[in-house]
Amino acid sequence: MTNNMPQRNSWPDGFIWGSATAAAQIEGAAWEDGKEDSVWDAFSRIPGRTLNGHTPETAVDHYHRMPADVALMKELGLDSYRFSTSWARVRPGDRSTNAKGLDFYSRLVDELLEAGILPWLTLYHWDLPQALEEKGGWANRDTAYRFAEYANDVYTALGDRVQHWTTFNEPFCSSLLGYGSGVHAPGRQEPRAAIAAVHHQHLAHGLAVAELRDRGAQQLGITLNLSNSIPLDAADPVDLEAARLFDSLQNRIFLDPILRGAYPEDTLTDLEPFGLREVILDGDLEIIGTPIDFLGVNHYHDDQISGHPDTSGADGHSGGSGRPVASPWIGAEHITFPTRGLPRTAMGWEVNPDGLRRLLVRLGEEYPTLPPLYVTENGAAYNDAVSTDGSVHDPERTQFILDHIAAVGRAVDAGADVRGYFVWSLLDNFEWSWGYNKRFGIVRVDYDTMARTVKDSGHAYSALIAELRGTGTHGRRAAETAPVA
To answer: pTM for this structure?
Structure first.
């Protein structure tokens, strides 16, 4: 664990410690109480799309076990729980509001509040109703307006109790991976559709923010998965250009429209052949640039980039099914990801905690209108083993979490306005195209019995929260010195 960082007496007042999940990954009850197919239900049933043909039909049965899961959150001492609502449950087939679906989320919110846990709601974590995909999905501009209607329905049901509203989680994944590479649902490999999806999701975000703001919502934001783009050789023009292209497609195509109200000029030029300018209509960017109250940052790894052939590393987006997928780096398919020789998680992602510090500081330096930041996902998959006594010792994950928390602290020292940290994930779950073969949870789920077991990483995170809550000081020291089992 890194210890050579500045010290500080405490984390910012009111700093939030939480954990996160997503509806499609944990709920199950795929067609219960009126819910119909999402794109992930439909996608995962196609042979070869997910590892071992796994589907989210049952997931980890959170739909039926929700009260016990909330009790577990309380036991861990979480300040906040970041969850998503399923569009396919709230508006099955996107026809009309499903009262039973909304009732589940209403009961969840009530359970959280009763437990003293702040609900942090995400409206879209990739589960588009399949019926809308059959009308073109996010490549169809009309889907943005359907999203605003769905957001309005959720707010009507929960706006009296939920303060924090996130429009989208990681639009990179549901646009460039869903419509470009095909590794995510709906599995399309159509570059122009992928670029249209980026813009239409931005538009949907802006429409929803404006709609909910008009209705009185106070805390509105979006969560982006962001990475550092590190050229292999900073003196090599080829590597510098490759790093620029990666930064454009991973970061700036999302950050700039939302925070500056405009796409970067180089991005517009790069994507001219793929129709980005064509889908931007008059007034769109004003809607997209509607001010937000917070920016969620998801970060699992950063990336070293080259423009030269190199097979020593990978971009981490090939998925688990083994089927051929396209590159998500539209117009920059040649870029490569040379290894730095760092330790890797079970996902094959390099571990570099200081990359998170660097990213958080960069955001404040480059975006003058940057709202407060929350690290809304950070965590790691490892191959856990259950001990004979039933406990789960996961020292690598424990170290990963504590080291990244310490990196957040160093970012705060450097001036980054970070106000919360959510570990991913609360529970082992359906890991998209990897099915149930990758475990991110600080709580283990036995997929046969659905029994929950807090892992050592969960105990360490809980102990850290308890120490911070108990003393109100020396938060950095706690993150640096918490024992690793």
So the answer is: 0.95
Considering the candidates 111, 133, 211, 377, report the single residue annotated as catalytic: 377
Active site includes 149? Answer: no
Helices (runs of H) and strands (runs of E) counted in the chain:
18, 12
Compute φ and ψ for 343, nearest 5 degrees. Answer: -60, 155
Element holding 114 (H helix, E strand): helix 99-114
Of the candidates 27, 36, 111, 170, the residue annotated as catalytic is: 170
243: which 2 tokens? 């790093």
- Residue 249 is classified by DSSP as I
Question: Residue 214's CB: how many other CB atoms inside 10 A?
Answer: 9
Q: What is the pLDDT of residues 327-336, one digit of tens each?
A: 999 999 999 9
Do the beta carbons of residue 127 and residue 80 sit within 8 Å?
Answer: no
* pLDDT for residue 481: 41
Torsional sign, CA 422, 424, 428, 433: positive
Cβ atoms < 10 Å from Cβ of 195: 27
Q: Is 133 a catalytic residue?
A: no
SS percent in the chain: helix, strand, coil, step 5: 45, 15, 45
Q: Kind and range of the H or E element at 36?
A: none
Pairing state between β 443-445 and 373-377: unpaired
Using DSSP, state whether 261 is helix, strand or coil. Answer: coil
